[in-house]
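User: I'll paste a sequence; please echo it back and then give the predicted structure.

Assistant: Echoing your sequence first, then the prediction.
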Amino acid sequence: MAEKLEIKNSKNKKVTSNISALFGAAFIMATSAIGPGFLTQTATFTQQFAASFAFVIFISVIFDIVAQMNVWRVIGVSGMRGQDIANKIVPGLGYFVAIIVALGGLAFNIGNVGGAALGLNVLTGLNMKICFIIAGTAALGIFVNKDAGSTIDKVTKYLGIMMILIVGYMAVVTKPPVGEAILRTFAPENPGSLVFPIITLLGGTVGGYITFAGGHRLIDAGITGEENLKEIDKGAIMGIGIASIMRVLLFLAILGVVAKGFTLEASNPAASAFKQGAGMIGYKFFGLVLLAAGLTSVIGAAYTSVSFLKTLHPAIERNERYWIMGFIVVSTIIMTVLGKPAKLLILAGSLNGLILPITIGVILIAATRKDIIGDYKHPTYLLVLGAIVVVLASYAGVISLSKIQMLLH
């Protein structure tokens, strides 16, 4: 009897551990996408397209689901990280993907540290250089603990929930025209002008390291193989759902301000919307959301970028936690010294634009390879829709090339 009870307890612990890891994987993916750029992007496009931006969000969520379901399923079933899958398809390609994703992750991480510091500055009024150091140190503290995996899961979950609650409150306070937003979700004005924002949102939610953040966290948690397909799907859907809820609530909160005729400040449109929508309390709430968005994105970028670098040398895998900490330290130092690395951030976005069609393309090829996924049958509709995402991502890559050329002149 005692033996049976012990087995039952062991099973319950495993189930609880799996649920916690699934939530962790979902939140690290979602909060990696919800960074400082996410806030600015949503505010800028809402100002520009008003209620019709609802259509952009709707279409981008569909593409996001397609990209993430393809990536999570192939990574989860195979138990192989993105760069290892790429190496299996074309020897050496995985090393290229690992380096370019890590470089893009580093550049974005510099901006994420800056975003977290700006949020801290809004809350406290401290000098920005001091805020850079505090923000970097706070993110660093997550990885001091040897059991960093469970700490990441908890921190991203709690900060993610806090962001949703605050933005949800703002969406109620600003009283947006919800009926018009629902109408424009399916009948937008001037739909031709919405192609660019759709591609921009696609890159922002599934670009670079973000696509692989949740999938790689599942591997580290040991939730792999076809027998865990239901859990893998749940994790992907939860992650997409969290990021989408945040996007919709933020859009509604800002739409409520824009619909009343307010013009957002170009230098910081999201902060302007929160301030105009709820006064100084709204402005302080923005600081809290920006701090949380920056910190969770720093954690996601550092963790996922180093998970790609593991392939380059066994020493990196053995000392993964220290490499992640080093990644954050370097990001913080560069941000503190340079202050506003605008060109670096544009270059990072351009690199992500170039890498996205390669990474999704690799996943789609892997979905047809028995030596990678075994007997698992990947749904045809995911392959077809995934191919459409690759075409769109390739178009975004062409735009990225022109940005890189401008930077080099």
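The mean pLDDT is 85. The radius of gyration is 21 Å.
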